Amino acid sequence: MDVVDRFVVVVGYMGETVKDRLGAEYAGIPIEYVTQEEALGTAHAIGCAREAVSDRFLVINGDVVINETLPRQLAADDGATVAVQPVANPSSYGVVEIEGGEVTSLVEKPDDPPSNLINTGIYAFEPSIFEYIDQTEKSPRGEYEITEAIELLMADDQSVTAVEYDGPWLDVGRPWELLNANEAVLDGLDGRIDGTVEDGATLQGEVVVESGARIRSGAYVEGPVVIRSGADVGPNAYVRGSTVIGEDVRVGNAVEVKNSVLMAGTAAGHLSYIGDSVLGQDVNFGAGTKVANLRHDDSAVRMLVKGEQIDTGRRKLGVVVGDRTKTGINTSLNAGVKLGVETATMPGESVLHDRTN
């Protein structure tokens, strides 16, 4: 049974890029796009889709990774439904209290959580939710919150069911969380070889080599690894961990890539190490560029986000590199560094802090 008969994607910032990437359908199901002209919160985003919705619908944030069981759970229920999940640190999230399977309260990031169930931000609604969205006022942070619309619905003596979900739920809102998501998605990968694997290349574990990709002699690839169409790996390269080598990526001689994502058109041609990192599109690593992915004190790597150093919780974390960035030969990049779009480094440079240009 299909869960939905149509996708409605609400886009805003870089909306045309999202449309180009997703296209007109997914798995044979059509996609319709709605534009949110200004980012004014989740309730506002959902409200933008009202003209495209005529029946009960699911709401799933575009920056979370879940498995297919949750949409099926929500679709099988009736009326307004909130997906909840037990966690060890609920005070960092919106916390949900339930009684008899129904939601009784939603509290945002409480100091003293009334339960260990968090709001996953995934819902099912009837079209009547739009009238409560219309009544929702801006929160102190200047957004229209869907949790307030739900509270208005409950205050109108309408029940909201809680569906407890125990599968993977990964919030991909910060750079290093792309690695968490990649690891989750590649877990259980089924390998296949549609491209070219030269004699003398070694593939271990689950490896996908797409049509048009090439693995040259002497390369050693340990799955789970996906090597996309047009990618060229080797000779004598080492690719391992949960790694995606994107379309038309070049991983050359004596280059090691571990637990990383290299996006389309990126090149690391000679004598480089890339570990636990995310490289954007059309990045070029000069010969000998090396990434540090481990602190000397063995503590979790920290990364600067919105002016604040955040503990990533990752013992191993390399770098996040923006599109079209170029490094000079023998550049050293420290653990947790971010390089912005179209940044350049000098030959032999040691980069210890974030760089924007």
Describe what you observe in this structure.
A hairpin with a 2-residue loop joins strand 2 and strand 3 (29-35). Helix 4 packs across helix 5 (146-155). The mean pLDDT is 94. The chain folds into two domains: 7-169, Spore Coat Polysaccharide Biosynthesis Protein SpsA, Chain A (Alpha-Beta Complex); 178-351, Hexapeptide repeat proteins (UDP N-Acetylglucosamine Acyltransferase, domain 1). The strands form nine sheets. An eight-stranded parallel beta sheet has the order 12-15-18-21-24-27-32-35, with helices on one face. Strands 13-16-19-22-25-28-33 form a seven-stranded parallel beta sheet, with no helix packed on it. It is 14% helix and 34% strand. It is globular. With 357 residues, it is an alpha/beta fold.
Mean pLDDT: 94
**Quaternary assembly:** single chain
- What is the CATH class designation of the largest domain? Mainly Beta
Shape type: globular
Helicity level: 10-25%
The CATH architecture category of the largest domain equals 3 Solenoid
Instruction: Tell me the distance between the termini.
Output: 50 Å
- Content of β-strand: 25-35%
Which structural category fits the helices and strands?
Answer: alpha/beta
Note the main sheet: 8 strands, parallel
CATH topology group of the largest domain:
UDP N-Acetylglucosamine Acyltransferase, domain 1
Using only CA atoms, what is the Rg?
Answer: 23 Å
Number of strands: 36
Number of helices: 6
Poorly predicted parts: none
